[in-house]
Every structure is written in structure tokens, then in C-alpha cells.
Amino acid sequence: MKQIQLNNGVSIPQLGYGVFQIDDLAQCEQGVRNALQTGYRLIGTTACYGNEAAVGRAIAKSGVPREDIFISSKVWIQDTGYKKTMASFQKTLDNL
């Protein structure tokens, strides 16, 4: 899969798999596992989707080394500011 080099020198996949509106957690987990088996290495999620734990389970069960997977998330407007943003990041890490 084509990679894009970021300003810090890290390369990230150009194409990712998103889990927006996948409310069925078993379906979300299976979809992420299938995506990883197909070759996706960038997964896009956020806490408001309510499926971060399913994404985490899929990654854990995938057999793909964690250091090979990029996970993107989002910070909502109500969580801006240093303390709220850091709490939002921690919530995502806990969920995953």
C-alpha cells in the first residue's frame, strides 16, 4: 500500500479503513480483522462511534504486529484545550 511521509519522517499508509456508523460491535471487530488481513494498516475511529473497544479487540486478535498499525482518532470540539484533549486521548487509549 502506498505510504505518505510525514514532516517528522514517519511514513503512514495513504489509505485506511474507517469504522464510522458500524454500531454492531461484532461486525466492527470482524470488519477490522478482515481489513488487517487484506493489508490495511491504518484504522480510523473515534470515541463517539462507540466501537473503539471492538477495534482494539480486532487489532489484538489480528496477529499483525502493533507497531505496523496506525490508529487515527479525533478530538471533539468540546474536548479542546490541553487538559480536555489529554483526557480525550487517554479515554481513547483506555477504550482501545
TrEMBL record:
Keywords: NADP, Oxidoreductase. InterPro entries: AKR, NAD(P)_OxRdtase_dom_sf, NADP_OxRdtase_dom. Residues 26-96 form the NADP-dependent oxidoreductase domain. Belongs to the aldo/keto reductase family. It comes from Periweissella beninensis. This is Aldo/keto reductase. It holds the Pfam family Aldo_ket_red. It comes from the Bacteria. SUPFAM superfamilies: NAD(P)-linked oxidoreductase.
